[in-house]
Automatic annotation (TrEMBL), chain A:
GO terms for molecular function: metalloexopeptidase activity; zinc ion binding. The lineage of its organism: Bacteria, Pseudomonadati, Spirochaetota, Spirochaetia, Spirochaetales. Residues 1-130 form the MPN domain. InterPro entries: JAB_dom_prok (IPR028090), JAMM/MPN+_dom (IPR000555), MPN (IPR037518), VirAsm_ModProt (IPR051929). GO terms for biological process: proteolysis. It holds the Pfam family Prok-JAB. Gene3D superfamilies: Cytidine Deaminase, domain 2. Keywords: Coiled coil, Hydrolase, Metal-binding, Metalloprotease, Protease, Zinc. This is Mov34/MPN/PAD-1. Residues 49-79 form a coiled coil.
From TrEMBL, chain B:
InterPro entries: Beta-grasp_dom_sf, Mopterin_synth/thiamin_S_b, Sulfur_Carrier/Prot_Modifier, ThiS/MoaD-like. It holds the Pfam family ThiS. It comes from Leadbettera azotonutricia (strain ATCC BAA-888 / DSM 13862 / ZAS-9) (Treponema azotonutricium). It comes from the Bacteria. This is ThiamineS.
Length: 141, 92
């Protein structure tokens, strides 16, 4: 289960609409909760580093950007819990391409953006053997 | 001795430790020592003898690709950070 504060949810939705028709991306920061839960307390939007002509269906977080996000998380005494990105005019479900490039442990929040409007928001986690994404309960409040 | 900072995704292989102090005069030696101390992490860092392509390594704030890669020398007070590559997107 992953909890997303109202402010963080609003920011992810705004970023998805701002980037449309391209994909947006960013980092989720917060503490791990007891059991298997996570609480997203801060969202760091990151510039999509893919070539401009590829951004309508791809995102990439540059290593330097993630390094700075990791340092910021440590400074805030928070964890990098995962990442968000948008699927412009596509469902909020991970693609095979998402799976190929994902890592276990992280939460992958996906925002569907339909015609420029933020729509469904889902979260996913890759199994340890990397074979499949499981939907993760996402609580927005 | 240099310190290696472990990303959250790999901490399940380091007993949840976020920083590991290791011996080593180069980045390559330090990471090899980490894999020696925590063998389960090895498969996630290496493909054969090479570091996996989706693992980026920084000394301070500089990517070792801009230095001498795994031969980059490290000092006792250096911080080495392992950073995974993150990408994705819709099909097509």
């Amino acid at each position: 289960m992953i909890r997303l504060s109202a402010e963080c949810e609003a920011l992810v939705r705004r970023e998805g609409e701002r980037a449309f028709p391209n994909e947006c991306c960013g980092v989720l920061l917060g503490p791990l909760l007891d059991g298997d839960g996570r609480q997203v307390e801060a969202v760091l939007p990151i510039e999509n580093n893919r070539e401009a002509e590829e951004q309508y269906h791809r995102f990439r977080i540059e290593a330097e950007d993630l390094m700075r996000a990791e340092k910021e998380a440590r400074k805030q005494n928070r964890e990098v819990l995962g990442f968000y990105h948008s699927h412009p005019d596509h469902p909020a479900r991970p693609s095979e391409y998402d799976r190929e490039f994902a890592l276990p442990f992280y939460s992958y929040i996906i925002l569907g953006v339909e015609g420029g409007r933020a729509a469904e928001l889902t979260s996913w986690r890759l199994t340890e053997d990397r074979s499949v994404f499981n939907k993760e309960e996402l609580l927005c409040r | 001795m240099p310190v290696i900072q472990i990303p959250t995704a790999l901490r399940s292989f380091t007993e949840r430790k976020s920083e590991i102090t290791v011996a080593g005069a180069t980045v390559g030696e330090a990471i090899a020592k980490l894999a020696e101390a925590y063998p389960d992490i090895k498969q996630h860092l290496y493909q054969g003898a090479e570091l996996r392509s989706f693992i980026n390594v920084f000394v301070g704030e500089t990517n070792i690709k801009k230095m001498q890669a795994l031969d980059t020398p490290v000092k006792d007070d250096d911080t080495i950070m392992l950073v995974p590559a993150i990408a994705g997107g819709i099909q097509g």
